[in-house]
Structure prediction request, 138 residues.
Amino acid sequence: MSQSTATRPGMRERPLSPHLQVYRLIPTMLMSIVHRITGGALYFGTLLVAWWLVAAATSESYFDFVSWVYGSWIGRLVLFGYTWALLHHMLGGLRHLVWDTGALMDKNTSTRLAWATGAASVTLTVLVWIVGYMARGG
Prediction:
């Protein structure tokens, strides 16, 4: 029977891999994590768009039902979150595109850009919803 590396005579115990408890959370790391989460959330949001399109192609009563669901307070909250996820993921992708050129990679600039991505995604989401409500007439 073979022994593990840590229990062989004369062998030192191997170090563990770094984990989240070792690292200090910095803005660029946080935005990277949020970017991945919003990417996953967009899969769900795309199903919502598909459901809306299917309802539009099916019947007026089914479309009215889906519109009622989306118009409820929980539906609007989900759509607001989807809008934010879409905008945040887009801005994060643009940030990475800029970094792919080798620009804005120094520590201070990349940190400011990470904070700007978060702030801009929230600001743009609110603006999109304000414009949407104004376009609807209320």
The CA atoms of residues 30 and 72 lie 32 Å apart. The two ends are 75 Å apart (CA to CA).
